[in-house]
């Protein structure tokens, strides 16, 4: 027994993670890629153990959790193989660390560089989907960061088996297995959010209310978004056929995701022609429509929308519809009720596009295409760590660049500031190297 | 009398500011530059009124505030002329808005751009220095942002005269004077920090404790730093002459600023030779030295440092000194006690530099030059809106780029996601335009 107060076990874990992360941060691309390949091989070796652990999780959860959650929890051989292939894909991505963003001579022999570097330690909180742990760890290693994972309680056995294999894999490499940690209890989530001295970024993956809880209960920066209330505005100059096709895609192709639309705004001069067409197409896809008073005058058989509809992310086959008098009214509605995620205009009028792009305050503003394109993979980022709806960068779909920061590195040869001040002040040259 | 509850007057002000800012955000560079020139001219015209208001502020404050604060409050003709010249300098800076960061074809006719845009509304809280209002407004206009200023109570008359002139100037231009607002009471500061729906970035300028108060009492992103506890590490391979000169510059050239050093870490093998030399040079500049036990063995006449010294920003002619056994110990001390601002190594050993640059977790890491170079103007940014010690970008000295964010803009021609999924999925081309 020690006579000193024992520190929180989570602080000890965080310190170990940071220590391992400090070394990982300056590891070469080769070292990190070798670690990623070792993880892939260790997961292949542990395949049976992982699948058995998942079976136990599923059996325990079967009676307790709803069907969609159960499906996410399930990890079959096929899903696991895909996840391991995903690990190797991350190995092939460009190293986000060590990129020189500024390289400037301030004066002869005084050279400034701004260079990307790892953030430090990531705290990633996810719910039932166990293969998320695999993807997250590979992204963390590639970006030179330590990672503290917190999984949902339903997935504990699966995640323990996965992280055991990952640590086993890392133990064969130059990357310290302490760089990856797994937490499993709800109390630890709360404690993790308080570790602003040890954790540099929190990425919550889960329900809107869970993400909002995280945002409101930590001083650590949070990458993500609570809501995805996306809008489509059908302008008076819209091409009707494009408008119908894109609306159906943006709502019904996959309604459960954050970049699907929840509200359709229609210019009053196109409403009579457009609404019956789009209603038929959407109803064929089993989409329930809810309209404001003017919409009901054209589509009398749909449900009446109430104030709450304009601020609801249905994540389901439901769409609210409102008729607006002008482009400006549509933009005002979007900026009032939207979540700064993704909003689109359908029009053939270039001036309207310019106004929409300039004044809709969202991370993604689209013209004549589906909001569903708002995605890191579709943007060509190779990986997506999340979609951020904050105002400051990183904003929108965030790839590996969201897991790095930068440092200013300056080298001189005895340079002092006194030489550049006062009566005989030297001037800076400020020449960029190209 | 209205029968409705009147909303907080600050919300009404914030809404007016946002409305004006939305238009300012999409103004051309010419429009913004004309507004900046109009501000400069209006300030010249209102010169007498501003100087008289400042005289009244100074008379009211003379008995109440300490001498250094009084000096900051004073605005003479010379200071005002410099501030107006500064406005015109901002006019000459490159427009930070509208820069294309990504320009990519996702598929034929489906074009993605990532483009910089204004943040929205800035909340800037500053203390006694009235000319700060002039600089801030010109930076806000140049970056297309609205700005709500809150000045210290000592400077209210001066700032009211300045903002009156600025609004008068703007009223002659295409920029709505509502884009610039001034708050003057302490209650309003608290209320401003709660306006996370209306204000996109807070920049506090003031004492460490004030900045910390702001950071801890708002959900709005804060740009700045509370502490500037900068270190100098004198390695075993240090050149003695450079080490002495740079140490004196970093401590004594201007000790009140955040990039001056507070602690000197000296490798044990150089201490006996280096410490007497540097002590003499520093004492000639009236710097008080405080040393750990081993330092006192070499410099017996200086004060003993206590634990609190390692975490104190003196902002004064005081320097703490500690002898360390290795580069690793120096780095550990810096990462423990530093404020992630600016830390430097003096050495002729390239490997030590690499380790120091890689593992010191600070925004600015320097080699063989003074920490005092950590500054937006010296880095060649033209203007500095603050120095950030957060881990995520923007980090370190922040120029106009800290006042902008970006948006993804995508244009298609009826493109839908369904075409890129399933059995006959089209592939993305992901070609960058050059």
Automatic annotation (TrEMBL), chains A, B:
Metabolic or biological pathway: Amino-acid biosynthesis; L-proline biosynthesis; L-glutamate 5-semialdehyde from L-glutamate: step 2/2
GO biological process, one term: L-proline biosynthetic process
Keyword NADP part of the UniProt annotation: yes
Catalytic activity: L-glutamate 5-semialdehyde + phosphate + NADP(+) = L-glutamyl 5-phosphate + NADPH + H(+)
Cellular component GO terms held in the UniProt record: cytoplasm
Aldehyde dehydrogenase domain boundaries: 71-288
Superkingdom, natural source: Bacteria
Gene Ontology MF: a single term: glutamate-5-semialdehyde dehydrogenase activity
Keyword flag Transmembrane helix: no
Subcellular location: Cytoplasm
EC annotation from Swiss-Prot or TrEMBL: 1.2.1.41
Keywords for the protein's UniProt record, in alphabetical order: Amino-acid biosynthesis, Cytoplasm, NADP, Oxidoreductase, Proline biosynthesis
Main subcellular localisation: cytoplasm
One Pfam family linked to the record: Aldedh
Function noted in UniProt: Catalyzes the NADPH-dependent reduction of L-glutamate 5-phosphate into L-glutamate 5-semialdehyde and phosphate. The product spontaneously undergoes cyclization to form 1-pyrroline-5-carboxylate.
Family per similarity comment: Belongs to the gamma-glutamyl phosphate reductase family.
Listed name of the protein: Gamma-glutamyl phosphate reductase
Organism of this sequence: Halotia branconii CENA392
């Amino acid at each position: 027994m020690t006579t000193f107060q024992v520190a929180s076990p989570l602080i000890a874990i965080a310190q170990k993670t940071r220590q391992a992360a400090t070394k990982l941060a300056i590891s070469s691309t080769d070292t990190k890629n070798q670690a990623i390949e070792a993880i892939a091989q260790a997961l292949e070796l542990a395949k049976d153990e992982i699948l058995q652990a998942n079976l136990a999780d599923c059996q325990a959860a079967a009676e307790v959790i709803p069907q969609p959650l159960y499906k996410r929890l399930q990890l079959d051989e096929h899903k696991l193989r895909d996840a391991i292939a995903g690990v190797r894909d991350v190995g092939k991505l460009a190293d986000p660390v060590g990129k020189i963003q500024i390289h400037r001579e301030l004066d002869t022999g005084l050279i400034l560089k701004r260079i990307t570097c790892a953030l430090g330690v990531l705290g990633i909180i996810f719910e039932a989907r166990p293969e998320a742990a695999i993807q997250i760890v590979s992204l963390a290693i590639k970006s030179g960061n330590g990672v503290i994972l917190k999984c949902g309680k339903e997935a504990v056995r699966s995640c323990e088996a996965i992280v055991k294999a990952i640590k086993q894999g890392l133990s064969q490499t130059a990357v310290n297995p302490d760089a990856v940690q797994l937490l499993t209890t709800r109390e630890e989530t709360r404690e993790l959010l308080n570790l602003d001295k040890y954790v540099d970024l929190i990425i919550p993956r889960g329900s809107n209310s869970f993400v909002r809880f995280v945002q409101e209960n930590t001083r650590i920066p949070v990458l993500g978004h609570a809501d995805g209330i996306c809008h489509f505005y059908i302008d008076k100059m819209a091409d009707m056929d494009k408008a119908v096709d894109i609306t159906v895609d943006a709502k019904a192709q996959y309604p459960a995701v954050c970049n699907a639309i929840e509200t359709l705004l229609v210019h009053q001069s196109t409403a009579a022609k457009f609404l019956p067409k789009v209603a038929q197409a959407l109803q064929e896809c089993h989409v329930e429509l809810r309209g404001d008073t003017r919409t009901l005058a054209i589509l009398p058989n749909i449900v009446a929308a109430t104030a709450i509809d304009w601020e609801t992310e249905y994540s389901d086959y439901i769409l609210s519809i409102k008729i607006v008098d002008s482009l400006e009214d549509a933009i005002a509605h979007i900026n009032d009720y939207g979540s700064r995620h993704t909003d689109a205009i359908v029009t053939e009028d270039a001036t309207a596009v310019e106004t929409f792009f300039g004044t809709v305050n969202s991370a993604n503003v689209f013209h004549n295409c589906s909001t569903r394109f708002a995605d890191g993979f579709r943007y060509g980022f190779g990986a997506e760590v999340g979609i951020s709806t904050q105002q400051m960068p990183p904003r929108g779909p965030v790839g590996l660049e969201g897991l790095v920061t930068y440092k200013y590195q300056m080298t001189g040869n005895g340079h002092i500031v006194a030489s550049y001040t006062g009566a005989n002040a030297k001037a800076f040259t400020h020449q960029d190297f190209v």
